[in-house]
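Exercise: predict the structure of this protein bound to adenosine-5'-triphosphate.
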Amino acid sequence: MSQATLSSNARPSMPAGTQVVPITVTHGDGIGPEIMTATLKILQAAGARLQIESIDVGEKVYLSGNTSGIPPEAWESLQKNKILLKAPITTPQGAGYKSLNVTLRKVLGLYANVRPCVTYPPFVPTAHPAMDVVIIRENEEDLYAGIEHRQTDEVIQCLKLVSRPGSEKIIRYAFEFARLHGRKKITCMTKDNIMKQTDGMFHKLFREIGQEYPDIQQEHMIIDIGAARLAAQPELFDVIVTLNLYGDIISDIAAEVSGSVGLAGSANIGEDFALFEAIHGSAPDIAGQDKANPSGLLLAALQMLTHIGQGDVATKIQNAWLRTIEEGIHTTDIFNENCSTQKVGTQAFADAVIARLGQSPKFLKPAVGGQKNERISIKLKERPLAKKELVGVDIFLQFNEKDVEKMANDLKHYKAGNMELTMITNRGVKVWPNGNPATFCTDHWRCRFKSPDLIPSEFQDVLNLMFKLSLVGYHAIKMEILYTFDGEPGFTLGQGQ
Ligand code: ATP
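Solution:
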C-alpha cells in the first residue's frame, strides 16, 4: 500500500475549510496503470483535494493464489476510505477466479449503478447527436443473487429475488439523482406484464414514490420495447431506472449506440461506500503503448469528485476535457479525418486537458456545477408488517411418466387443513384441470394445494401433506408456501388459469 496527497499544488487556491478526502486507488492491469497515471495527473493539476492510498487488486493477486482477487490489506484500505477509484483489471482465464466487481458490489452494498451515456457530436462521430441518458440500475438483487438449483433431470431453476427495500432504494435514488442534476424525466423499465409480483412491485413502487416528485416527468415502458426504443431513438430518454439484469443489458446497448464506449465512466454507489471506474476493460492488446484513451476513467473520476463534494473541480476538468475533444486532440480510438486535428498518446492527451483547465467548450454544452455535497442519502419509508396467512402450498414434483391425469387422480385424494389440489402446471402453464394436450411437458410439475376460498391452514398441515405424499412415492423437490398479505394473494395464477 502506498500513500500520496494530490492536493499539494492546489493548496493555495483551496477555499477555506475544504477538506482533503482520503480515497483508495487501484492501478489495475493492461492499460490500467497508464490511464490511471493520466487521470491522477489531471486531478492533481485541477486542484482535487485527495489523499491517495494505492492498493493492489486484480491479476497479480489472483495469480498469487487469492481467488477473490483482493487481498486483506486492500479490504482494510477500503474499509477506512470508503471511496474506490478503480482502473480496469484482468481476470485470468480459467475456472475458480471470482469476479472482483461482483464481490466488491455485494460486500460493499453498492446498490446503485449509475452510467451516463452522452454523445459529443460532431467531434466524436455518432448516429445520435442528441443522446444524453443516465441509466440507473439496481445492482445487488434480481437474478444476480446466483441462487440456482438443478431440480429434476430436465429442469434447472434460477431464483429472481426482488426486495421492497432494494427496489425502493434504487427508485428513490433515481428521483433524487434527477432532481440534483436538473433532469426532467425518468423512465422506469420492467417486464411486469409477465412478472406481476417481482417487476410488478418495482413498477408499483415507482408510481408510489413518483408522487413525491411531481416536478419530474414519469413514464413506464415494458423492457423489450424500452430497449428497442433506446437503441433506435436514445434521444427520447433522460434518466432510466430499472432492475439489475435489464439494466446490465440496456447500459451496454446505450453505451454502444452512443459510439463513445471508450469515453464512458460509471459509478457504483452504496450507503457508505462508492466505486468509480471506466466501463471498458483492461485492453491488453494496446497495454504499455501509450495509446489508450484515459477519458472513461477520467469521467468516472469526475463522478467521484461530485460524489465527495468537489463538484467545483469536476466542472473545471469536464470543461477542459470538452474543450480538448472539440479542438480535435484525440487518442487513436476516436481519431477521425473529419474532426480530429492531432493524434496524441495517453499522457499527451492528459497534458492537453491540463493545458485547458480554466477554459470552457465553445460548441459542446459546458458543464455547470458547484461545490455542494452531492452525496445522495436515501431514507426508506417505514411500513407496518402485513397480516400474513398461510392459504396453500405449491409442491414441486419430478414425475417422469408425464401423464398428468394419472398424477392428478393420485394427488386429489390428499387433503390437509383447508388445502386441496386445485391446479397442476408445467413450466408455469396450467395442465390440470382442463389442460390442452398440445402443451409440451417436462418432468417438473407444480401441484398447487390451496383453500379455494383462501381460508388459512397451519404450517403443520403442509408438513402432514408432504409426509403423506412421500409415503406414496411423491417426493417433493421443492415447495413454496402460498401466503396472503393483508388478504392479498402473494402468488400468481397459473398461465391459462
Ligand atoms: P473485458 O472482458 O475486460 O471487458 P474486452 O477485451 O472484452 O475485455 P476491452 O478491454 O474493453 O474489452 O477492449 C475492447 C476493445 O476496445 C479492444 O480492442 C481495446 O483495445 C479497445 N479499448 C478498450 N478500452 C480502450 C481505451 N481506453 N482506449 C482505447 N481503446 C480501448
